[in-house]
């Protein structure tokens, strides 16, 4: 019987690196510079029959309020930390988020470092070598994407989905019957999981 698992995924990164655009491209295959997102879901079907449903939490600009950040990554199974390849400072901000996740999030969390705006490669400030070396040193997944063209977007989420079922606890253990705002550490029975509500203020990111 195929497995159906649900995981909480959070996007973190400096404002304007394209987090919301990345989610919109992944979920709806659309691009909109000004579209705001806070919570969306998308399912990835793997070759082995596993169905991985992501609860995607976008900080939607609230990362500027540092005290609110833990509500997004608490009990997250995976995180995509996004930087803008045309802005060196955004990679440093991403490093700060990764350090915070390593300190505060669950030790089993899967973290992917994602360099967005690959369509603006002519204005690149962050080299692939620099970012990939950092990711390897920290044990992170790494990819570059373009939310505008769609390049690399599905691939990074699929790679995360492939890693999650082998690192998470089975749905029958570790709180699979819990319903509410987060999926916890384990894969969650989709028949029992309730859609979380969010009152997060949204802004263009």
From TrEMBL:
<dbReference type="GO" id="GO:0005768">
    <property type="term" value="C:endosome"/>
</dbReference>
<dbReference type="InterPro" id="IPR005225">
    <property type="entry name" value="Small_GTP-bd"/>
</dbReference>
<dbReference type="GO" id="GO:0015031">
    <property type="term" value="P:protein transport"/>
</dbReference>
<feature type="region of interest" description="Disordered">
    <location>
        <begin position="164"/>
        <end position="205"/>
    </location>
</feature>
<keyword id="KW-0342">GTP-binding</keyword>
<dbReference type="GO" id="GO:0016192">
    <property type="term" value="P:vesicle-mediated transport"/>
</dbReference>
<keyword id="KW-0636">Prenylation</keyword>
<dbReference type="GO" id="GO:0016050">
    <property type="term" value="P:vesicle organization"/>
</dbReference>
<dbReference type="Pfam" id="PF00071">
    <property type="entry name" value="Ras"/>
</dbReference>
<feature type="compositionally biased region" description="Low complexity">
    <location>
        <begin position="171"/>
        <end position="187"/>
    </location>
</feature>
<keyword id="KW-0472">Membrane</keyword>
<keyword id="KW-0813">Transport</keyword>
<keyword id="KW-1003">Cell membrane</keyword>
<keyword id="KW-0653">Protein transport</keyword>
<protein>
    <submittedName>
        <fullName>GTP-binding protein RAB5</fullName>
    </submittedName>
</protein>
<keyword id="KW-0449">Lipoprotein</keyword>
<dbReference type="GO" id="GO:0003924">
    <property type="term" value="F:GTPase activity"/>
</dbReference>
<dbReference type="InterPro" id="IPR027417">
    <property type="entry name" value="P-loop_NTPase"/>
</dbReference>
<keyword id="KW-0547">Nucleotide-binding</keyword>
<feature type="compositionally biased region" description="Polar residues">
    <location>
        <begin position="191"/>
        <end position="205"/>
    </location>
</feature>
<dbReference type="GO" id="GO:0005886">
    <property type="term" value="C:plasma membrane"/>
</dbReference>
<dbReference type="GO" id="GO:0005525">
    <property type="term" value="F:GTP binding"/>
</dbReference>
<dbReference type="InterPro" id="IPR001806">
    <property type="entry name" value="Small_GTPase"/>
</dbReference>
